[in-house]
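Example S7 (structure tokens).
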């Protein structure tokens, strides 16, 4: 029998051709698997028909984070090439990054637009703490983002197995992306068209919160026991209107795992901003989110474990097996699932 606390239980077989490297057009033509928890039934449809399946009297919550062109290429003083991925800002205009290429504390790396990166700390987990400079002036976050948008690349997930292109600048951002800070898109929201979003706004109480998706979202669970996994943290913020709607909502639909984790963190900690490190799994189930709209996630990832927090391990694997059989497209640019 499968053990919901064992990482090995969350593995599944996925043919490579089902990994989506590009989105479908229009966005709402993507497939949608609807799992009804009350009737224990699966329905196959498309995102265009999403409204037919949403319960009445729900409050809808979306993530308005915006993806940074966080991947940049430069050189060391020796002339050797180096690749840097911005993860997130820290305090005092310091930043957590990942650097491909050997570096040491005090090393200064050079990039286009006169951007200089000084390495301050080497962390045991492979991340680095750095400062960014231009003309010998230390850069704040918004100034840095402006430069990255000129010289950087969107950090597409590794499983897309390709470089970013001009179309990704639109396709890998949500229609309502607003606040720069993410290195990955809240992908459940990529399926919305203007028309579908308008229909949802017309019928439901729709709210936006922010969680800046970090590179840790792709980190596999290496521990044998899932509860031994050191969960990554990501900055979140819930505005006044969203908080008020959340407090009075009778039923909550979270669009995406990032929204789910933010709401559930607030429900437990009563914090409206800070670092969210909540790990939802069958041993830590949701207490505020009733319904979930999401994509299909990587094997042995914290995200598939989050799905199991809603419907259980065995049902999760059954749903994923059905999605593979029906040739759903998986991961960031893939198809989706609605749990009601």
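Recovered sequence:
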């Amino acid at each position: 029998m499968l053990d919901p606390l064992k990482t090995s239980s969350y593995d599944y077989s996925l043919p490579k051709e089902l990994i989506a490297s590009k989105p479908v057009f229009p966005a709402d033509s993507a497939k949608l698997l609807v799992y009804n928890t009350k009737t224990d039934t699966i329905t196959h449809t498309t995102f265009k028909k999403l409204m037919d399946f949403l319960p009445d009297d729900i409050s809808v919550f979306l993530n308005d984070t915006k993806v940074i062109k966080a991947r940049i290429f430069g050189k060391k003083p020796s002339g050797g090439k180096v690749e840097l991925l911005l993860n997130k800002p820290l305090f005092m205009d310091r930043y957590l990054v990942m650097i491909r290429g050997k570096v040491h504390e005090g090393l200064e790396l050079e990039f286009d637009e006169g951007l200089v990166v000084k390495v301050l700390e080497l962390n045991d987990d492979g991340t680095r703490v750095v400062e960014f400079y231009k003309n010998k002036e230390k850069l704040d976050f918004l100034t840095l983002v402006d430069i990255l948008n000129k010289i950087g690349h969107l950090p597409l997930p590794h499983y897309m197995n390709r470089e970013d292109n001009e179309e990704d600048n639109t396709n890998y951002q949500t229609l309502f992306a607003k606040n720069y800070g993410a290195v990955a898109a809240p992908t459940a929201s990529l399926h919305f068209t203007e028309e579908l979003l308008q229909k949802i706004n017309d019928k439901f109480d729709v709210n936006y919160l922010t969680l800046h998706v970090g590179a840790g979202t792709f980190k596999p669970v290496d521990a044998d026991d899932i509860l031994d996994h050191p969960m990554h943290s990501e900055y979140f913020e819930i505005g006044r209107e969203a908080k008020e709607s959340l407090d009075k909502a009778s039923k909550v639909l979270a669009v995406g795992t990032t929204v789910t984790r933010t709401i559930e963190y607030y429900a437990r900690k009563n914090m409206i901003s800070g670092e969210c490190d909540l790990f939802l799994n069958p041993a830590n189930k949701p207490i505020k989110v009733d319904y979930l709209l999401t994509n299909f996630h990587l094997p042995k990832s914290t995200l598939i474990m989050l799905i199991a927090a809603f419907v259980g391990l065995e049902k999760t694997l059954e749903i994923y097996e059905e999605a593979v059989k029906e040739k759903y497209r998986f991961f960031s640019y893939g198809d989706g699932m609605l749990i009601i």
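Notes on this example. The chain has a mean pLDDT of 96.
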